[in-house]
Amino acid sequence: MEFEILKKSKKSKARLGLLKTEHGVVETPAFVGVATKATIKTLSTEDVERTGMQMLIANTFHLHLRPGENIVKAHGGVHKFMGWKRPMMTDSGGFQVFSLGFGTDHGVGKILKKGEERTIEEGMQPQKIKITEKGVEFRSPVDGTKLFLGPKESIAIQEKIGADIILAFDECPSPLADKEYMKKSMERTRRWAAECLKVKKNKNQAIYGIVQGGKWEDLRKECARTISAMPFD
Q1: 228-231, long-range: CB < 8 A, 24+ apart
Q2: Partner of 211 at 20 to 30 A CA spacing, among 2, 94, 96, 168?
Q3: Is the domain covering 2-228 a CATH 3.30.559.10 domain?
Q4: Mean pLDDT over all residues of the chain?
């Protein structure tokens, strides 16, 4: 993958660029369509193409559950599986695991609702998943099967799915987390990022790192410095 900067703003850090992948060029900044299960709801691939959409992102967690990454690979990868000829991304599955955990426990998403006073402290665990240093243990929301997802597993799944750009596996902490929990989570995300780079084998796929830190600017800056120093694309 190659990224070319065409022009930089004189008033801000905004910039125009070209993201070059094996399946085409994306003009940035770009709106990336969400094709969770390798499809955009209510639209055919032809419909999506007619919108001028340059790139789509599919969901590693959901494709792992159904139909399974091996079936996607057997069809020639996600591009052939869904009949899409333009660039593709896959996320790591980190947010979906959060949704099964603290997200479900407290009824929260990425953004905290006004007036929410509960706090998640360092060392606390969600009810339906178990977060360990190696990854996350959980049960399939489809059939209750016991599953495990960590950096090694996420990268292996994403390599079989075959998108142009994949994402490092991270812990997506709840907005209810206190600063100590957030710091520990951020450090775990950093270790998982290093593991993702270590186990990645497919040189034809680009990989992006993830910055965490929640609402604390000092943590976000620390994480950004650490992740940007790693050999991500």
Answers
A1: 230/193, 230/194, 230/197, 231/197
A2: 2
A3: no
A4: 91
